[in-house]
Amino acid sequence: MTATPPIDYDFDKQHIWHPYTSMTHAQPTFGVVSADGCELTLDNGQQLIDGTSSWWACVHGYSHPYILEAMQAQLHTLSHVMFGGITHHSAIDVCKKLLNLTSDNLTKVFLADSGSIAVEVAMKMALQYWQGQQLPNKQRILTVKNGYHGDTFAAMSVCDPEGGMHTMFGNAVTQQLFVNAPQTPFGEPLQHDDLSSMRDALDEHHQSIAAVIIEPIMQGAGGMRFYSSDYLKGLRALCDEYQVLLILDEIATGFGRTGKLFAYEHAAIEADILCVGKALTGGYISLAATLCSDDVAQGISDSPSGVFMHGPTFMGNPLACAAASASLDLIARNEWIEQVAQIEAQMQTELAPASTLPGVAAVRVLGAVGVIEMQQPLNTAQLQQAFVDLGVWIRPFGRLIYIMPPYCIDQQQLTQLTNAMTSVAKMVGEQSANGQVQPQFISHG
After folding, report:
1. In sequence order, what are the residues at sequence separation of 6 or more whose Cβ sits closer than 8 angstroms to the Cβ of residue 230?
2. Catalytic residues
3. Which residues carry this modification: N6-(pyridoxal phosphate)lysine (predicted)?
């Protein structure tokens, strides 16, 4: 067996940009040489339990034989072909499975490269739809504060406009409409005024609004906030009342993460346009999809162009579609239902004591998402090393120490993650209480 060559950390530091980092003040990086199940193996031989599912995508764990076999077979027959004027089995298979899993009104699938592109596609669909309805002035998107929908320019325009990741781009980003974020916690009946700012905005601007976009039930990178399903029910009704499309961004929440196959199922509603990604392929390769209804597709077809104006080079990539098809097969077995329920129950028990620690603002658990929110921003680089020393891969951001582990995690591995979260939260709280303010390195990833 060929020995793994050493990782050239110096080259990496000098020349390779990592997400949300500086090239002149680079963060430390950790070299990963392999991964299996829920564990990452570093180049020094240390194994870390992965608490992030590689940014919430590897829900089945690493090196799952079923997905690897599907990709290997596809690789030897058709790894890529243009999608313009061509179709193939793996694209058809994954689209059939997506339509079978999602709500009945969604009948059309656009295969995209990534989650951000799926959001771009959804927004373009909404604008073209209204052109086909002879209402071309409906060009704005309405959303809620604290949201996150991606890093490309249209997606940035509907991310949080105040404390979000993209506020430095100013007027270069399209100015959209924002209202207050949902405040009623998950599992509670809607506070009577929680939808009032949304209703007011729709009442005043509906003639120029093409769609509302929202992350259902959980606002992810905007703070891991869980909100009432009644808010979604009311929002669906408002969109119908004011003739505005509803785009649901399930890129982070889809495929079981919140305890339902899709988070919109908590509210028993349907989207006009739905975005999925991340766990679509089980995290093995990049692929996303935007689904829409017959009505939306007809409106786009009736628009002046007569066609939908988008077509990525790697659209419908056969290798990615094969991975997604295999991942969806695993989802369809429904083992995730019991797995996520067990993860949720264990995290509720093991994270609850952290709520009494100094410096902790809140502890939240929903499905396979566990969060300790601190009162002060965290030093990501410092805490990253602390977690590695504890044998886990947990990457805090903002004020949040959180995990979204693979569904296949066992109880002992999950306990190691929750113990690490609590230990680090205690350390941070004690440092703050003693006046040891951390030098802030704010990372959003």
Report:
1. 184, 189, 190, 267
2. 20, 148, 249, 278
3. 278
